[in-house]
Amino acid sequence: MSSPICEGVFTVQRELGMHARPAGRFVARATRFVAEIQVARVGSEDEWVSGRSVLSLLSLGATRGTRLRLRAVGSDAEQAVAVLGGIIEEANEPESAPVGWGSGTT
Amino acid sequence: MRSGEPVPTVLEGVAAAPGIAVGRARVLVPETLTIPERRLTPAEVPEEIARLQRAACSARERVQAIHHALAGVELADAIFRTQLLLLEDPQLLDGVARRIRDGGINAERALQDEGERMLAVFAAMPDPYLRERRSDLAVAVRELQMCLLGLESARIGPLTEPTVLIAVDLSPTEIAQLDRASVLAFATDAGGPASHAVILAHSLGLPAVVGLGRATALVHEGDLVLVDGGAGRLWVRPSPEVVRTHCQRAARERQRTNALLRLADLPAETRDGRPIVLRANLERADEVERLRDHGATGVGLFRTEFLYLNRDEPPGEEEQLQHYRAVLAGVKPQPATIRTVDLGGDKLLVAGQRRSEANPALGLRGVRLARGRSPLSTVQLRALLRASPAGRLRILLPLVTGVEEVVAARTHLADLRRELEAEGHRVADGIELGVVVETPAAVALIDRLAAETDFFSIGTNDLIQYTLAVDRDNEAVAYLYGAGHPAVLRVLRSAVEGARVADRPIGVCGEMAGDPLFTLVLIGLGVDELSMSAGSVARVKRILRATDWAEARSLLAELLALRTAAEIGDTLGREMRRRFPEEFESAAPVP
User: Is residue A100 part of a domain?
Assistant: First the structure.
């Protein structure tokens, strides 16, 4: 059984950083992949934390501009990194961005 | 000691939720949990860890129960979701289990130590917003501790008389469990404008003041207190005079609200009898019950975006069907106008792909997402068609810029209808298809679009943005954004006239529709419908009913003759204040 490893570096774009809500969505999504997910701050790769723990993600203290390294190990590793990296790089919480991209505008 | 200290009659805090309440104070003394400490034999360790897991389980059940009780309160939703995630967080629970195992100590002690360690990590964060997330963690740890100790989470016992709660702080769970029959209001020492207490008090409509500093020290159990939530004040043992003036003010506000609600039953028409249909904009299906109380006739805009947000896969056909049915059935026999999803492509995680666009306002969004009969569009249209027998469905297409987009939607709908009927589903006849007029292109093509469209709805927010080339969230240029710009008035006139010539009804569903300042302008233009948030209907109706159509037209003609947004703003503000002094007594200048 092969275990592909996939890694990627993503930059937090959210104004308020990786706060509770995006971290919660990250975890909810991460638990649906087979792959084991780990996250670390770029430059502190000896301190990996679990991608399935809100508390761990919050404890990274990732503010806007923080670069995070994502590592997935498992059969769906590649997809996991693409999807979860997307959550890290979302510009804003969907519901807090009413104007400029559509929701709530008329 | 407080006996000798003179108590000020009024404490200033943060206005958390408006409303006035007078009652006897119930002072909740800060309760420190006594954490028992016990050494375990190695044989006892597995049972202790199992006890921790069980406690986490019941803590989650408690939070879940409250979460259900507050279903639909959007911000409360986010708070409790975070709580649930923390209560099943592997790092927290594994950390506590490790301490139990390695230290040979009981679960309560282990939780206390691990909790303190984690809270210290948060306290050390340089970013103030992330640092504040420790309050989420502190609440979760406390909830778990209470379950381990076998304590009820509510420390507020049964109340026998109307009460104002005074506490150092109240947790989200405590606020959610307050007995609404006897708790009139609450006031806390701690808390700022964005605290959980504020968010929940607002959602529950409970008058509240937070951030008072020393209320628990200065107020005695049983004192008469008055909470003025709107002003952020707590009056301690107020004089009869203070109570009287506040109660009179509260009564006046109630009267005003009631008078507006009584208007709900009167017809929406001008003094000289021109009917204008006032409809409600809706964000969520469960708001539908409140519409009639406000005097709204059907739904003029149901935004479907909320179904798509905060999730990784778009909602399925069955899930959407439930929401659409609820809206249609809720306003039947009035129509429900449902707009197909208007999200930017960069906000949609479709099959794990996320596009990032330099200019999302001009990018892949609105009806463009339906191109090529995308699965996103197919699922939504199928759900809409299947829901259609529940009421009178009107489908609205956002961000249309060309006739081909409407034709594509129409043929797609026709094919899906055949497909659904072949599958044995019923689809209603007479479903109307409309276009949101929100691009200058749609205004320019209004006659062509009319040939393919049953009705129009002007989305003023985006129409203003695209007409004036202004992003109103960009502070550097926001001054240019304004409904009173002469170019905007001309564009609106041309849209309404085009629709009238083509004999298609046209309404307005943007913010402008619910702004009483613009009611005469829109009536003067000759629109058939205004759709706004339910809370705005009564005010707009009152202005409508006190206006002659001819008067509105002549005011519009006067405004169209002016050259600048500033001139239009001045004249409109002056004229509206003169006609409706009580509506615009403190009105700011026209945006």
Answer: no
